[in-house]
Amino acid sequence: MDKYFRSGKGEIALLKVKMKSIHRGVITLACIVLIIVLTACSSTPGTDGNDKVRITATTGMIADVAREVGGAYVEVTGLMGPGVDPHLYKASQGDIRKLEQAQVIFYNGLHLEGKMTDILEKMSKSKLVTAVAEKIPVEELHSGQATGGTAYDPHVWFNVKHWMRATEAVRDTLMEADPDHAEQYKAQAEAYLGKLEALDAEVREKIGQIPEASRVLVTAHDAFGYFGQAYGIKVMGLQGISTAAEYGAKDVSELRDYLVENRIKAVFIESSVPAKAMEAIIAGAAEKGHTVSIGGELFSDAMGAEGTEEGTYIGMVRHNVDTIAAALK
Ligand SMILES: [Zn+2]
User: Fold this and answer.
1) From the CA of 221, how far away is ligand 1's center (Å)?
2) How many whole angstroms from 44 Cα to the centroid of ligand 1?
3) What's the gap in Å between 178 CA and the centre of ligand 1?
4) CA angle at residue 227 from 282 to 296, to 5 degrees?
5) Mean of the pLDDT values across residues 55-74?
6) Residue 238 Cα, ligand 1 centroid: separation in angstroms?
7) Could you tell me which residue, 123 or 220, shows the higher pLDDT?
8) I need a surface site. Which of 50, 104, 262, 322 has the fewest CB within 10 A?
9) What spacing in Å lies between the alpha carbon of 235 and ligand 1's midpoint?
10) Angle at 266 between CA 161 and CA 162, to 5 degrees
11) pLDDT tens, position by position, 77-89
C-alpha cells in the first residue's frame, strides 16, 4: 500500500478505485446476508398467513391428532392410508421425500413402524421428531410378547386416556416448533382433549352394557390389549402384538377350542389384516358344531376412508365400540 502514497496522482486514483470496489463488495455481501436472513425469517412457520408448519405423520390416527391440535397453522401429510398395516409398512422414495420436507415429524414409536425405525431415527438428527406413544409413562404400557422386537405393546390409541397423552405430546411439540402460535395450539388441544374425555366415557358405558360373560373380543392380531384392560373386556388375538409375527396351526386350534368351549358367538376382522385367518377359525369351530359369525370389521391399526366418520380417530373408536356392542350383546 505504501508505494501508492509515495507515487503520483495516477496511483492515488487507482487506490480510490480499489477502495470503491472493496466498498461495493462489502455492500453486496451485506445485501446477500440480509436476503438470506429475510428468507429464513419468512420460512419460520406461521409468521404470515400462508406459511404453515409442515408436518408429516406416519399413521392416520396421528395425522388426525396433528390436524386437530394444529388447526389452521399446520399442513399435515399422512403416510399410511386406510387399510395399511403399519407393522409391515416400508417407506417409499416418495415417503422419504415427505419426511425430508417436513419441519415436524410425528410417529407412534414403540416399534409400531418396525420397518421405518432407521429412517425416523435419522430424521430426528435434523428436525423435531416426536414418537407420541413413547411419551406415555412406561409403567402404563403393556409389555409385548417380545415378538418382532416389540418390547411394549404399541397399540396405545385404543385406550382413549393414552391417546390424550399422545395429544399432549403433539401439542407440546407444536408449541416448540412454532412458539408464535403457542396459545392457539394450547386452546385447540384443550378442545380436542375435551372431546376425547367424552369419548372415553362413551366407550366405557357402551362396553359396560354387554353382559359380562359375553365380553370377549376375538380378533386377528393382538391390537386391543389396552382397549380390553381399560374398558373391561377380555381380548384374544390369533397373531401376536405385531402382524410381522407368524401364527401357527397350534394358535388356530387353541383359539377355535376357546370359542367352542366358551360358546363365543362372534369374532372380528380388521381392516388392516387379511381376513383369511379368522375364516379358518370359524370353519374349524363349525366342524365342532359351534357356529361363530363375523361380528364385523374393526379398525385396528388404520382408520377408515378419508372424508367418512371412520376416517377420524374419534369416528373409528366409535365404529369399533358400536360394532363390538352390537355383535356381543
Ligand atoms: Zn397392530
Assistant:
1) 7
2) 36
3) 32
4) 35
5) 98
6) 12
7) 123
8) 50
9) 14
10) 10
11) 999 999 999 999 9
**pLDDT score of 104 more than 90:** yes
Asked if 298 and 155 count as a contact pair (C-beta separation under 8 A), the reply is no
As given in the structure block, the three cell numbers for residue 287 are: 366342524
Cα of 270 vs centre of ligand 1, distance in Å, is: 10
Q: How far is the CA of 285 from the centre of ligand 1 (A)?
A: 25
Residues bordering ligand 1, an ion, CB closer than 5 Å:
223, 301
Which residue has cell 391417546?
163
The grid cell for 308 is 367418512
Residues 149, 138: contact at Cβ < 8 Å?
Answer: no
Measure 150 CA to ligand 1 centroid, in angstroms: 11
272-286 pLDDT, tens per residue?
Answer: 888 888 898 999 999
- Identify the pLDDT of residue 41: 46
Ligand 1 centre to CA of 253 (Å) is 22
Distance 151 CA to ligand 1 centre (A): 14
If you measure from the C-alpha of residue 32 to the centroid of ligand 1, how many angstroms do you get, rounded to a whole number? Answer: 51
- At 284-305, the pLDDT tens digits run 999 999 999 999 999 999 999 9
Residue 70 CA to ligand 1 centre (angstroms): 26
Count of beta carbons in the 10 Å neighbourhood of residue 40: 9
Per-position DSSP letters for 121-169, written without gaps between them: HHHTTTSEEEEGGGGS-GGGSPB--S-TT-SB---GGGSHHHHHHHHHH
Distance CA 198, CA 62 (A): 19
Is 270:86 a contact under the CB 8 Å cutoff? no
- Residue (of 136, 141, 95, 86) closest to 115 by Cα position: 86
Distance of alpha carbon 285 from alpha carbon 178, whole angstroms: 56
Which DSSP state fits 238? E
Q: What is the pTM of this model?
A: 0.82
Which of 239, 57, 75, 238 minimizes the C-alpha distance to 157? 57
Distance between the two ends of the chain, CA-based, in angstroms? 98
CA of 88 to the centre of ligand 1 (A): 10
pLDDT of residue 172: 98
